[in-house]
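[Q] Does anyone have a clean structure-token version of this?
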Amino acid sequence: MIRILLIFSLGFFLFCKSPQVDEVDFIGRDTSRYTSPSDPLAKSLLSGISAQNESFTSFRGEFSMNIQVLVPKKETFNIDGKIFFSKPGGLLKIQLMDTFFGLIFSELIATPTEISIKPSGATKPIIQPMGDLYLQDPNTKKQIQLPFPVIYQYLSGAFQSEILSSKARFMAKDGRILVEKADGVYEYFFVDSLPSRIELSSTKRGIKAVSLVKEKDPKHNHPAKSILSKVMTLNDEKENALILITMKKIIKTDVQDSVFRF
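[A] Here you go.
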């Protein structure tokens, strides 16, 4: 497996005072019988979700990220950043910055199929297929696993095409849609036809991950004001990290193609 490491100095963030990130449970695949897309309730659910397509438009903004590492000991880090999303092509760019000086230490550009990262000072970006990311402290070599696919799915709305697959399975009365992909089983949870939670269970990667809406934005249906994610090991469900992304500013606007370059 190729791992992209976002290298940064955790020394900047170790002593930042920050609020406790709430716990989040992993619901998991239901034992009840899922239905096919031909189910009338499934069709009704998809129709409602389709009516919300206009909520998933291009935007740019600023965010803060609070990371709680849970093993081998509990530590908390804070990072600021900027985000850009272009609906055509599903392009997502994230700039990670230190909280004190505002200096960019890594830039990330994602498409539905791959991720490119260029740390500050690097001459060329590193490219990998869409998958997990790892933050690494260059001093301790500690790695923090980020369940990027579920975060990308939520921010980009890429799930909209996947839930239309003939392989999708539904628990429509509970607003749940399950899709089995090559890298694992994804389940999408909807409230009022908008995504409220995305879960991933991957035998191949040995993890479970979840991203959920913690706080809605008062002005926009999407993205939410804050998104809480958790990643854990698959076998013993040992929690590795909690990641809280809070949007400080969101502007709904077209984003030029030139932004998605290093």
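[Q] Thanks! Anything notable?
[A] The radius of gyration is 18 Å.
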